[in-house]
Design brief:
Layout (H helix, E strand, L loop, with lengths): L4 H12 L11 H9 L2 E6 L2 H15 L4 E5 H7 L7 E7 L5 H12 L3 E6 L5 H5 L2 E4 L12 H13 L9 H12 L4 H9 L2 E6 L2 H17 L2 E6 L15 E6 L7 H11 L3 E6 L9 E4 L9 H17 L21
Parallel strand pairs: 1-2, 1-3, 3-4, 4-5, 6-7, 6-8, 8-9, 9-10
Helix pairs in contact: 1-7, 1-8, 3-7, 3-10, 4-5, 8-12, 9-12, 10-12
The chain binds 2-amino-2-deoxy-6-O-phosphono-alpha-D-glucopyranose (GLP).
Length: about 325
């Protein structure tokens, strides 16, 4: 029996994958704007920022010049914005101050603003030129899970990414299968950890960031997300005895993964590798995607959400009640 809202939402996100096409009805104008833009800026806070990082890499795959920014950086120390800039602003609530203010300022400078949110009626909605409402609905938990699923699906659809070619039912079957696994060996290690490095390249660096956010919020781990080889350029000096989670599920994985994993093991880092059954990179613990799993980021994302949840429960934490967190933040200085 499920006792936590976050676990319900992890599963409900999978059910909703079927609905996301409802939100793609009016993608033609935003798609046209992206096609003619000089550059695309993805902005957001927390999980919404990391969704933008995934959007950035999905853009690169389509040859689009894109950059993801934490909305506060974009607002206070951001790049040049012109009339040829398209801004994709993510906010579950549609009310996070940095995101709404950054979107408003970008629009004042002539940018075309696409808002991606869960609600029809929001401050972001009133600022954006086009609002794409995800089918996620209201997230019951503080930890965003089904929101990230839905925002990703919408982003892939918006970008006409190769990931938008999968049918939702195909993805749903695989995701249901993976979230029910117990990941016992990995959870035992993660539940004993004080710190966690999450590593990935490209789209999977975005997943690593989202995983770091979730493990921090839900399992109260001190987390750092890095592009995989970056751990060798400093952090490895002080990582022995703690785990690293390497996300390496893409079909065309860069060849440095095996070397980095081997370096981590030699340095005494407990290395957990999330991978396809056909790609063995070594490491202490493997979490394998099911065979014939689609090459789609939603599958590892659901595993990472489930791992976070199971780690939190194993530690005796209530992942529905993370200390110091609220679902979104409104700063009085930006009111
Ligand atoms: N703790 C929450 C995060 O979980 C959330 O991702 C972020 C952005 O919220 P929103 O997506 O509503 O803009 O706000 C807070 O920091």
């Amino acid at each position: 029996m499920t006792t936590h809202a976050v676990y319900d939402e992890i599963r409900s996100g999978i059910d909703r994958l079927n609905d996301f096409k409802m939100s793609t009805r009016d993608l033609s104008e935003p798609r046209k704007r992206i096609a003619h833009a000089d550059r695309v800026h993805f902005i957001g806070c927390g999980s919404s920022y990391w969704t933008g990082v995934i959007g950035q890499y999905a853009s690169f795959q389509r040859g689009i010049d894109a950059t993801a920014y934490a909305a506060s950086e974009y607002l206070f120390a951001g790049p040049p914005i012109t009339e040829e800039t398209v801004v994709v602003a993510y906010s579950q609530s549609g009310e996070t101050s940095e995101t709404v203010t950054a979107a408003r300022r970008a629009k004042e400078k002539g940018a075309f603003v696409i808002g991606i949110t869960n609600t029809d009626d929001s401050s972001l909605g009133s600022v954006a030129d086009v609002v794409l409402v995800t089918p996620a609905g209201t997230e019951k938990a503080v930890l965003a899970t089904k929101t990230v699923d839905a925002a990703l699906m919408l982003t892939f659809s918006l970008l006409e990414s190769k990931y938008s070619e999968y049918t939702p039912s195909e993805l749903q079957r695989m995701c249901r299968n993976v979230v029910e696994q117990d990941f016992q060996t990995a959870v035992a290690v993660l539940a004993e950890a004080k710190t966690l490095y999450t590593l990935g390249q490209g789209i999977e660096y975005g997943l690593a960031g989202e995983a770091a956010t979730k493990f921090g919020e839900g399992a109260l781990l001190h987390t750092t997300a890095l592009p995989t080889p970056e751990i060798s350029h400093g952090p490895i000096a002080n990582a022995a005895g703690e785990p690293a989670l390497v996300i390496a599920t893409q079909e065309s994985e860069a060849s440095l993964t095996s070397e980095v994993v081997s370096k981590l093991c030699d340095a005494g880092v407990t290395t957990i590798v999330l991978r396809r059954p056909t790609n063995d990179y070594g490491g202490d613990i493997s979490i394998e995607l099911p065979s014939r799993s689609p090459d789609h980021p939603i599958v590892p994302l659901k595993i990472l959400q489930s791992l976070t949840y199971k780690t939190a429960v194993k530690k005796g934490y209530n992942p529905d009640d993370p200390p110091e967190l609220s679902k979104h933040i409104e700063w009085s200085a930006l009111g």
